[in-house]
Amino acid sequence: MPFKTVTSKLAAQLDRDLMGPEIGFTLEQLMELAGFSVAQAVLKEYPLAASTKTQVLVLAGPGNNGGDGLVCARHLKLFGFHPVVYYPKPNSKTPFFSRLVNQLKFFNIPVLNVDENWTQFLDSDSTVCVVDALFGFSFKPPVREPFGSILQQLHKVQDRLPIVSVDVPTGWDVDEGPVEPNSIIPKVLVSLTVPKPCASKIDSLETQHYVGGRFVPAEFAHKYKFEPFPYENADQVVKLSPN
Ligand SMILES: NC(=O)C1=CN([C@@H]2O[C@H](COP(=O)(O)OP(=O)(O)OC[C@H]3O[C@@H](n4cnc5c(N)ncnc54)[C@H](O)[C@@H]3O)[C@@H](O)[C@H]2O)[C@H](O)CC1
Ligand SMILES: [K+]
């Protein structure tokens, strides 16, 4: 399915618009729907009935992409998976993020800090996939530590352990795509609201492409020059390719 994209600059403006005084969404509302949609994409790609594996490693970054990952982990648990979250640089700008972490503890979901051994979950036979919620549309290469080392680890395992990237594959330039050598190639990309230009660089033979974050009416989509996506029923994601 051909799709329109919005640049990183326009995506940030779209977000500000949704959360501005006229429309009035809160970040919390949008993040809940974004994280929920990523969890749905994971369930669609890796149905629990098809495997005995249930563990999902969620890598959460310092910004809102990381917040989507924290929400996603909670929904994965409700769906029947066993998520483990690695959160090396917790967001301390707003108390909302520590509330998301408290909710994970309420759900008995382990949240590992920077010093804990997260790579054991890359080696574990029970891990279904890794959710890459490290960086989204505000990432500017080159990547700084500890995230560079995390990406190196992901690159090493990506042929045997699928990566599900939230909004943008981490390390990719949002507008240009995989500009760094050894960029990760996700098995699944879940674009949020509308794909960013880097999504047109994915190879549909390697990467399943979904769009999620179902929170804009048709008129708003048209304002940003894209068509609404053909979501079915109550689905929070729609597969764009291959279809
Ligand atoms: N409308 C929507 O679709 C919604 C999308 N959401 C998600 O929010 C992200 C964008 O979030 P933002 O906080 O603006 O940025 P990031 O998470 O991408 O990253 C910011 C974070 O990263 C640090 N950083 C930037 N570059 C580097 C680097 N080279 N090395 C290390 N660290 C870096 C920066 O300092 C910040 O701390 C979007 O993609 C969606 O996933 C929302 O959930 C709301 C709705
Ligand atoms: K990401």
Automatic annotation (TrEMBL):
Its main location: cytoplasm. Residues 11-228 form the YjeF N-terminal domain. Its cofactor is K(+). GO terms for biological process: nicotinamide nucleotide metabolic process. It catalyses: (6R)-NADPHX = (6S)-NADPHX; (6R)-NADHX = (6S)-NADHX. Keywords: Cytoplasm, Isomerase, Metal-binding, Mitochondrion, NAD, NADP, Nucleotide-binding, Potassium. SUPFAM superfamilies: YjeF N-terminal domain-like. Its EC number is 5.1.99.6. It comes from the Eukaryota. Catalyzes the epimerization of the S- and R-forms of NAD(P)HX, a damaged form of NAD(P)H that is a result of enzymatic or heat-dependent hydration. This is a prerequisite for the S-specific NAD(P)H-hydrate dehydratase to allow the repair of both epimers of NAD(P)HX. (6S)-NADPHX binds at N64, N65, G66, G67, D68, G136, F137, S138, F139, K140, P141, P142, D167. Belongs to the NnrE/AIBP family. Transmembrane segments: none annotated. PANTHER family: NAD(P)H-HYDRATE EPIMERASE. K(+) binds at N65, D132, T170. Binds 1 potassium ion per subunit. NCBIfam families: yjeF_nterm (TIGR00197). It is an enzyme of class 5 (isomerase). GO terms for cellular component: mitochondrion. This is NAD(P)H-hydrate epimerase. It is found in: Cytoplasm; Mitochondrion. Pfam families: YjeF_N.
